[in-house]
Amino acid sequence: MRTPFFPSARRLAFSAFFGWASAVLAQTSSYCNGPGTYNTVGVGAYNVQTNYWNGACNGTQCVTINDSTGAFGVTEYTSACAPSVGSYPSIYYGCHYGNLSSGSVLPMLVSSLQCASSSWNFTPDTTAGDSYDIAYDIWFAPASQPTCADDSNGYAGGAELMIWLDYMGDLNLPADSVTVATDLSLAGDTWNLYETPSSTLGWTYMSYQITSNVTSVTNLNLMAFFNDALSRGYISDTWYLAAVEVGIELRTAGVPFVSNSYSVSINGSCPPTATPTPTQPTATPTSTDSSTPTNSSTPTATGTATSSATGTPTKTATSLATATPTDSTTATLTV
Length: 335
Hints:
- The protein is mostly beta strands and 335 residues long.
- Helix content is 9%, strand content 36%.
- Strands 2, 3, 6, 7, 8, 10, 11, 12, 13, 14 and 16 form an 11-stranded mixed beta sheet that branches. Strands 1, 4, 5, 9, 15, 17 and 18 form a 7-stranded antiparallel beta sheet that branches.
- A hairpin with a 2-residue loop joins β12 (178-186) and β13.
- The chain starts with 7 loop residues before the first helix and ends with a strand.
């Protein structure tokens, strides 16, 4: 029998929670492994993965996956690796390092994205001493990698965009991370944004961290984050959206954790975008001077979006959600 990692009080709470999770996660696949293991279960258009990737974080991780719905629970994690991330058990839509979920429309050219939204509900553990973040992990492949097979060795030259919804404990970000913005208003909430340049990891890393933890989002507007990253020069419209993943980055403890439900929509049921009609200004004569009056108030429209953050690269970028969708491919999927 495996020796529990948790103290007595946590063991009682864990037992009650595990009984509930077992009832929810009927028709399951279960895995208990050490680091360097990547068990994957396909559920519809999604893949659920155990993803205990950090070989330097020794311990045991146990994950139970509902084979019908894609709900999954992490029932044991014994590594004490904080502040480093040891594992990211997760569910994803799209292409994860060359492994494509069935029926996915990803990878998709960023310039072809008209709308993208997602809903997610999860149940975290909040015991003192836990160290984790529960987050979206969204990957962008560079222009040279248009297919999933091209991503089998990762996303060098591309970008990783994380959206942290719930986090606590002793956490770290990649080396050379800088604070780009605080109290940034996006998608109906406020976020602190951190960025690590591609020279450190081989790809650009962004972390949008919510300022007040939540345990669910409904129709979260992913395009708001994509457009913000585009305006700051962190991604390019010639790149490809490769994968939209959600899960928990475990450092120390952080279990039990259950992902109850998750869905993603790419270019499905995009809301109409109003086209503004410019009003022509009327010149008012102010002088009888015979010279021709010059109207200096003629409005001009540009597609330039720039960052207000000091020291952040500024690039000319066109918003990704400014036109009626022309791509009829949809991926409105619910687990």
